[in-house]
Amino acid sequence: MSQQGYVATPPYSQAQSGMGGYPAGFGSAPSQPLYGHYGGQPQSFPVPPTGVALKVVRPSLVIAVGPPPAPISQALPTSHLAQQPFHSAPPPAMGHPPLGSPCTGPQSHRMPSPQSPPAGQPMGGPPSMGGMGRPYPGPPPPGAGGFQQFGPGAEGQPGYPQQPQGTVVTMCALISRDCPVFLPNAGRQSLTPVLFGTGQFGGQMAGPGMAGPGMAGPGMAGPGMAGPGMAGPFQGGAAQMAGPPQKKLDPDSIPSTTQVIEDDQAKRGGQVYATNVRGQVPPLVTTNFTVQDQGNASPRYMRCTTYSFPCTADLAKQCQVPLATIIKPFATVPKNETPLYVVNHGEAGPIRCNRCKAYMCPYMQFIDGGRRFQCGFCSCVNEVPAFYFQHLDHMGRRVDFYERPELSLGSYEFVATLDYCKNNKSASPPAYIFMIDVSYANVKSGLVRLICEELKTLLDNLPREEGAESSTVKVGFVTYNKILHFYNVKSALAQPQMMVVSDMAEMFVPLLDGFLVNFQESCSVINNLLDQIPDMFADTNESETVFAPVIQAGVEALKAAECSGKLFIFHSSIPTAEAPGKLKNRDDKKLINTEKEKTLFQPQKGLYEQLSKDCVAQGCSVDLFLFPSQYVDMATMGDVSTHTGGTVHKYSNFQVQTLDGEHFLSDLRKDVRKAIGFDAIMRVRTSTGFRATDFFGAVHMNNTTDVEMAAVDCDKAVTVEFKHDDTLSEETGALMQCALLYTTISGQRRLRIHNLSLNCSSQLSELYKSCETDALINFFAKSAYRAMLNQPLKTVREILVNQTAHMLACYRKNCASPSAASQLILPDAMKVFPIYMNSLMKTGPLVGSAELSTDDRAHQRLSVMAMGVEETQLLLYPRLVPLHNMDVASDVLPAPVRCSEERLTDAGMFLLENGHSLFLWLGQACTPELVQSIFNVPSLAHISLPVLDNPQSKKLRSMIEALLDQRPKSMKLLIVRQKDRSEMLFRQHLVEDKGLHGGASYMDFLCYVHREIRNLLT
Ligand SMILES: [Zn+2]
Questions:
Q1: What is the pLDDT of residues 767-799, one digit of tens each?
Q2: For the residues 195-218, what does the mean pLDDT come to?
Q3: Would you say 1015 and 71 are in contact if contact means Cβ atoms under 8 Å apart?
Q4: CA of 374 relative to ligand 1 center, distance in Å
Q5: What residues sit around ligand 1, an ion, with C-beta below 5 angstroms?
Q6: Which of 84, 431, 569, 835 is 20 to 30 Å apart from 214, CA to CA?
């Protein structure tokens, strides 16, 4: 088994053409290879110098996915995805106050001396080099069931709609090095190449054997699918399939996300993760662990696609692994982790490097007896201000090391001075403005009353500083339909007063005094107003609304009050009233799967673009609660929110009396209460050799470096991509510092600093070993969702596939030990990467199906852009929990199972959750006892989840409550019964199966990727 001394396998040739040509599913007839995310040049694998032994990492996971087909000769597309930064202009300074003269002593909080740091936490993630890693769990014993026989011409696997049926890349054995061979026959067969017919690839879809809707569901592995009489897989291709009947790979034998999650939880769950080691890979986002900050930011704040950057741009280009960090600057930390310390360096402001402006942090090296410090980012040597001077100990460390958060911690805050405030004026506390659409439909449905009732109690829960008696956030109220009504709710008034603005073209705020007030002071006037609003508009006939002027009014009000803030807009219909920002229905299903499909997701330019800029300039975030009963042009209506750090909530066909009401109210409560900073600007500084080049999130960019966010809350994450501009050093590593200047909820200006240090290596094996699949997928989701605004979906999907294959091929070439080409080899840290990539391509935005609502697709696209790693992980691999055998006495959630129909049982009951949807699935043969104990009814005809006093019911409801509590958004529980129509909604989340609206099963995708890898390596 020794792999030592392995010398590179024979030189690899230029990548084969045809790599991108997934049978018209991932894209058809491209004419040029596309690599890199959205627009790099084709890569060949260079021939390693002869005789140079490559460092070998023995992969933990080796799968033989059967004989791959011969390369498909096909051209690749010419188009490249253009990456368009929102905007670019000369970079203004992000508050660079001059380093003033020394001033009075610092008043930092005193830090507790750290307990003896746990002796170097082991490197997380993959096993060390040369280690075998965990073999993929239990292949069935030879001869055991689990492999379906497929006759020649067996059932095809419809992928995306265009995909010709029957691309049965009949797979063979899984080979784990530890249990070399099972199913000897299959193993032998794997040496027989399957030739694919070529004619059908890249052709224009259709034709016999196309994937029909009826094909969806149970999927390929269903026993019923195999056998004679199945549609011929290829048009004219079946005859070319060589060899005897092929074996179907056991679904248990391909990498399992649930297993990876379970293993990491078992290995690292419950542990303390100390951040004292550079380049240390943190536990998975799904693992429960406690973070102890010892010099690097918690992975809750910053998580990277890899913790070992390649030293050179060439290596980075070669492997195509994106170098990115997902930053969630306001991430919620568990109660047992220390909140951030606040450091005050006095009147001169935080100490920074004179040259690169990086803030004082653990990467600054004190020299010259403590009189100077050398910047870890740019190497500039700076004088230490007199007030900050401190002696060094025998290790060369300042003796106050443990007393200063900025010297010993990865994350902390600085008090910002006036230099960091707009116009050198100190900031004011932010304001929340509630803007309610009182058009006919909203009043009649009872929505207006529901909102007003809720606000009466909710306003008592406005966010406040830790320990503060009450909130300093001011509140204001507007109602509107075709015209706007502002309310004076000054505490001195006996009755609220309404002021009407009907000129939508010239929006202004009719009153300054009395519009934005303190809730406690004006409580009785406000409650009076909230009582009156539903009645005031009870007889309205007005069904038209305006929208852009509403946002404009909010910004103007904040401008007049000289504060930042947030607009809560409760709106129902597409704004058709004659006013600026009027929209029309431009939904056109005929555009789907055409070059023009992207236009459905592009917001209307002009006014809305300008509104975003105005909002960002004022620190005005827009949260939109939409209650549409038909198309509303989500792409445009949601645009301002997604450039201002806001959130768009969508409740289609909302009915107050149903669960919809509670669903919306819980979202609103979470939204009003959550931790948030305003008027924020973020800069990511790096050590020399690389820099931040691209940013994805609910942000606005006025230039290439400053990320502006009207607000940033605990759920918003920005994904930052890095590129080399020089060689990185293994010795010094790669350092990054995220500095976020913002206004707190009480109006203080602060700088939140997160520092992170990564390793650098000239060995690609180090990079692959330190990869973080969940972070990678976050990057790919955001970059693909942005790219789809400019490129046809099939091109975007194709790039995702190409890059998957490329990353894995490069690993195989450079890092894996030699093995038969029929084996698919995946890096241990990326073994479930393909399932996530496949799941991503099957998401609504990327799938291109006329059956999905354009607004829903646009909404998901916008939501994902602001997501952190936890959210994208869960979205792309939902949690499917079996409930029928749950132990009601245990606190532990039953172990989730793989997201596939095969895991469902007729007698079972399952909970499925992805952060946006929540389902309770009931098998047809669910036991009456279970049904009775959960629903208290013998029949399941019309069911909702009742509150019952028995252990099963309590357990289930507490599980659901706990889940809802963890998620940024509320979810409405949908109960679906096996074989019901509504089951389709549930099934689309079974991401290992073939997509209901197109897209390959996990198994098929893996085979396809394997074929592409082979093409790349031959
Ligand atoms: Zn510097």
A1: 999 999 999 999 999 999 999 999 999 999 999
A2: 29
A3: yes
A4: 8
A5: 353, 355-356, 358, 375, 377-378, 380
A6: 835
